[in-house]
Amino acid sequence: LEQHPELVTPGLAAVEIAHHWYAAHEQERAFAAYLRAAEQTRRAYAHGETLRMLERALEMWHRMPEPEAVADIDRAGVLRRAARAAEDAGEQERALALVKAALAEPAVRADVLRRANLVDLKAKLLDNLGQPAALAVLNEALDLVPVSPPSAARARLLSQLATRHMLADRHAAAIEVAEEAIVAARAAGATDAEARAHNVLAPSLIHSGQVEKGLAVYDREQEIAVEDP
User: Fold this and answer.
1) In this structure, are residues 193 and 174 in contact, taking their beta carbons and an 8 Å threshold?
2) What is the DSSP secondary structure assignment for residue 66, as one 8-state letter?
């Protein structure tokens, strides 16, 4: 299969190779093959298969002599990738469990920005599941990230918090946080977070009666899209 991948259905060679090495008890070869298969299935948007490949690699992690060297990231990074794959596959509960596992990793506990990004994802998943704890989790993440120096992580957290307020019809709070997010995003050069914050600010202004101001924000959002397509 490694020499003649055309023997199987296009796009499935990496997955088949990983399974065969695993069945042959060639643990190190299987581990590397599962990681390669995960990348291939991710590029093909086969989210469920990507999740399965990464979960098998995670099961084998502690049996490998140098797993980080093979994966080129640490275990927390693989857990995060698996969580994103689970989210994209619609397995929100599984994604949440994987994020919680990543947050428990020592490398994450020692890195404030990394922890904040994972807590941000945790809040999103809680929101996807309709759990009211999402707002508290976002505020927890914001407490982790200092205002200075400016960071894209803080800008993204603020834009997500503004979104939560907007969806709950708390338009005054959404406006306040979105404006803070825009300032933070510009300072950090985080155009994605700035665009998202504008997308919250505009409708929140319109719903609060500030129609002309809201329309002007939409115009600015279009400018950002042109500047950074």
Assistant:
1) no
2) S
